[in-house]
Amino acid sequence: MSAFGLYSHIRANRIRSIVLMVGLFLLVYLMSFAGGLLAAALAFDNATLDYLIDVSRGYFLSSLPVVTIGTLIWLAIAWQFHQRMIDALVRGHNVTRQEQPVLYNLLENLCISRGIPMPKLKVAEDPSLNAFATGLHQRQYAITVTRGLVDQLDEPELEAVLGHELTHIRNGDVRLLVIAVVIAGVVSFVGEIIFRGLVRTDMRGPSSSSEDKKGGGAIAIMIALGIVAVAWILSIVIRLSLSRTREYLADAGAVELTKNPDAMITALRKIEGRGELASATASVMEMCVDNPHSGFVDIFSTHPTIEKRVAAIVAMAGGRDPGPIPSLLPNRQLSDLIPENPKRTDEPPPWGEHRQWDRQPALGINPIPPWQWGPEGPRNWWERWRQG
């Protein structure tokens, strides 16, 4: 059943991508007709509605080649330069194996295990915890992780996040999202041009207020604005129609790749509430692992809540949910937290002299001495400290 659902999702994404491309042109043509109707209403505001519609039809047909070429140019720019635009927004840059050996090796091993080409690896210089994948074809695919994610997550958790984004690429979600973002951009751009033209036009001329006005101009303006509003709403519906099951499937794909549901769960819990990129637009946030400002009610959100995603992983793959994590510590080696000349803060253990930990003012914590770690070892020391 899971395999059937996965392959159905991939096939549906391919169909949706084609439908979205066709829908893009339809929306642009619809808004072009609205612009022509608005221009006709402003130029011949005393004419009848039928006459204004005929004039706007002529405007639309004459502008059709220009609109089509302009849309194709927009698509070509988005196809070629969307990654550079996103990198400029989030301060992302390519990293090599020498710069990020752990991160690079994790991604490479995941790709080798599934026999798929390795996407580009990027790091965004942002303290938030998030990651996203971009690209429209194999040579463009890239996975970007934030600096905060690299600093805060351990290797298994980083591997789970990379597996999540790799699954988005494999399932075709990334291409679909990029196309949806392009559609939203085109509709917003054309709509802004129409509204700016309306605001800058003086609609209070003598002909607008004359007693012999037949009313066609005012009705045509209302129709044009209604068409623009409908096109804008449709662009939102297109974005919301991208099923949120893609996140559940990507989480499941990460668990399948890493065989470690606990890592995916703790990664999501650490990202929870800490994923908002300061410089990213709403369209970029829709591509991320978590979108903390996706909507004021659940129906308008682009991502399921972390609670629901964690519950789905626990129900389908097992694992333990630690619950929301209120605070995080830098992901450093424990040896890095031991000062070279420590002040003695506790009595040495009875079984021998050991270096004792000093208070770390920069972290705002008093780490647990090694002899108090207990049988679970150093990996869970911060959890022991948090729980008192």
Helix content: 55-70%
* Elements, N to C (H/E): HHEHEEEHHHHHHHHH
Estimate the global geometry from the Cα principal axes: elongated
Oligomeric assembly: single chain
Overall pLDDT metric? 76
Strand order within the widest beta sheet: 1-2-4-3
Count of separate DSSP helical elements:
12
> How many DSSP E strands?
4
Overview of this structure, please?
The protein is built from twelve helices and four strands; from the N terminus they run ααβαβββααααααααα. It is mainly alpha-helical and 388 residues long. It folds into three domains: 2-90 and 174-240, no CATH class; 94-171 and 244-317, 2-Layer Sandwich (Zincin-like); 336-388, no CATH class. Strands 1-2-4-3 form a four-stranded mixed sheet. The chain is elongated, with a radius of gyration of 27 Å. The chain starts with a helix and ends with a helix. The model is unreliable at 202-213 and 332-379 (pLDDT under 50).
